[in-house]
Amino acid sequence: MLFFDRAMLAMGNILFLIGLTIIIGPAKTLLFFARKQKIKGTAAFFGGLLLILMRWPLIGFCVELYGIMVLFGDFLGTIATFARNIPVVGPYIGLAVDRAGIARRNTDLPV
């Protein structure tokens, strides 16, 4: 239960937003969260952060997790492809990815 400490979760979320802003820049960060296709994920992420700050850390974390999945779900195939190349555990991750069907989600992306 110590992992659901309100202060630690809030600090982690703030550092996540700062790190994302440093990596892709402030303008692109705002555009990423303001896209019309991702409005549900943005609302869930910031709503979960608000719930954490209002002393509901478990529920806020679950709402935030949904928001992160909606916002960053498109990148799961890219992450899975990268994880396949890890030397020792890569083949096992590849089997799990093939069974879950994660890598097939990004077949239409040009990356």
Automatic annotation (TrEMBL):
Tell me the keywords, alphabetical order: Golgi apparatus, Membrane, Transmembrane, Transmembrane helix
Topology of the protein relative to the lipid bilayer: Multi-pass membrane protein
From the Swiss-Prot or TrEMBL record, state where the protein is found.
Answer: Golgi apparatus membrane
Main location class = Golgi
Listed transmembrane segments:
6-27, 39-59
Query: Could you tell me which Pfam families the record lists for this protein?
Result: Got1 (PF04178)
> What family does the Swiss-Prot or TrEMBL record give for this protein?
Belongs to the GOT1 family.
Protein's UniProt name: Golgi Transport
In its UniProt entry, the species of origin is given as Sporothrix epigloea
